[in-house]
Amino acid sequence: MQVPNASPTAASASSDMYGAAVLDACEQIKARMEPIASQHNFSSFAELAFACYAQRIDLSAHGFFITPEIGFDWTTGKGIPFRYFTYGAAFSEVEIDTLTGDFHTRSANVFLDLGHSLNPAIDVGQIEGAFVQGLGWVALEELKWGDPAHRWIPPGTLYTAGPGSYKIPSINDVPFKFNVSLLKGHPNVKALHSSKAVGEPPFFLASAVFFAIKDAIIAARKEAGHDDWFPLDNPATPERIRMACLDEFTTPFAGLDFRPKLSI
């Protein structure tokens, strides 16, 4: 199957776009085969296909699909940018080390509405991968540029340009208990076989880890007698977690509203 002017395989739309294009092509071929199929009782599809071939029926088709019912005016900020939405929820439990700033995700529970999943095994894998990728975004991955705060890096140079200096998630960062559930009984009538996009929607659900980290820091600060609001920027690196856990070690250097810049 080839489509000469196709959209890229991106934006979690491949199944919707190309699946619907394939369905369009199949329906064209089916319509051509219907007169032959109605005249005889074929025992198999292969037998029907051979009969159509013998009758010189065209068994190829060009399928095409464009997403209907969408349109957005970027000038006015009004319109319908997407035909449907993928909904989900997540909650996480983390444990932080208040002396080092390290953390572990003890458990993560993710729930997603994917309509009628085309392949639950693949979809669950997509959800797990997107969630761990999002975990890296909210708690591990930090860009360090050569600027006044990092004079040891040449000006304008990106120091974190590879996995040797850029902390991406590893197997050790996967939640100890990782549960994924798909909502059942809610088909999406606007997509192929009542399914929904799954590639990118779970990504932001990893924000549950970020807010769990902040909740743990709040508990640590309360033990030290502090219950005021405090900033915690993304990503929640060990340096930022450690400096947010106020105690006798940080007090000489940081106040209640200390806001760490990028890690050193």
Automatic annotation (TrEMBL):
Pfam families named in the record: MoCoBD_2 (PF20256)
Top-rank lineage group of the source organism: Eukaryota
InterPro entries per UniProt: Ald_Oxase/xanthine_DH-like, AldOxase/xan_DH_MoCoBD2, AldOxase/xan_DH_Mopterin-bd_sf
Boundaries of every Aldehyde oxidase/xanthine dehydrogenase second molybdopterin binding domain copy: 2-175
An example Gene Ontology molecular-function term: iron ion binding
Identification of the protein by name: Xanthine dehydrogenase 1-like isoform X1
Gene source species: Cucumis melo var. makuwa (Oriental melon)
Lineage start: Eukaryota, Viridiplantae, Streptophyta, Embryophyta, Tracheophyta
